[in-house]
Protein: Translation-associated GTPase
Amino acid sequence: MSMTIGLAGKPNAGKSTFFKAATLADVEIANYPFTTINANHGVTYVRVECPCKEKEKRCGKCVDGVRLVPIDIIDVAGLVPDACKGRGLGNTFLDELRQAQAIIHVVDASGGTDAEGNPVDIGDHDPLEDVAFLNREITMWLYGILERNWAKLARKIQAEGLKLEVVIAEQLAGAGIRESHVSAALIETGLSRLDHVKWSEEDMIRLCDTMREISKPLLLAANKADIASRENLDRLKDLDRIVVPVSAAAELALKSAAKNGLIKYSPGDRKFEVLDGDLTKAQKKGLEAIYKVIERLGSTGVQECINRTVFELLDLIVVYPVEDEGKWSDKSGNMLPDAYLMKRGSTCHDLAYQIHTDIGDRFLYAVDARTRLRLGEKHELKNGDVIKIVSTAK
Structure:
């Protein structure tokens, strides 16, 4: 499936560093607000264990059994309070988030930047305030879109007997809201469909807040965790969120060192191996400092953020379609050529359509390449399945 993770947060929290560490893209990083003027689009990867480890032959698509499956990631400009009213760089960059199925909120856990993103002494700012402000900005952005024509729409729904969920979804389609999101939010808030004309401003904001939670699930990247106080990290972890301590700067340094052949490192590893014995004194000192960070945090946290967003927040699985169930290959003999991210609960027929519309339309059955058992169209796929689709499509 095509999917995009959005990186959001206030200026100077480390989003661009996180983005560069996740993608190794060439982006500007500086210690002042609004470094990112135009949203950065890139490709990052989720890390999974490759099924080829079960075979004698390696697939050639993984390194030491670690397979990296590509996904899109977008780094929007830093948001400041009242961005939804056009403050700072305003709604332009909230609009960029419409593409995202989930959001990684990069928070300066050290408290070293104020609400506007200006540098202050470490610990002077409460990072929990940043969490609350971003949620409110996105909620009020949705509310602003919905409220714009609501009086007219509410009367039209009542007069013409239109379906409430459909009308709201159409109004918010540009923000990535679907009918299913609206239906779930209406159930969760308990707002009466019959009394929609009487909804108060508070009711509508509550609805938008719930739709935000459902349509844009959010993970907190507690960045600068290497210089953050234990108290700040603990308070962030106490929130009802997935919270990952992160040092984006450490990950970027490791990726750059690996790219230059100085170390052996795979994204998400809990250690690295020095390959170049002729490191400068500064390089050795830098790697020693990073080693201590990893030892304390468990990893740099960047890869954990991406993996947990995909597999926990979005509840996706990885499936490997093949044409030869014996060799786990395509017709050309390429072993495990593709890895598809799919929603948990997807069926063999869903996979067929994911591969190609014609294959889905002319689906006959599937084969589990591990067991060689024939599977029906409604068979639910599991994470790591290797599947052959049989159809009459040419």
The radius of gyration is 23 Å.
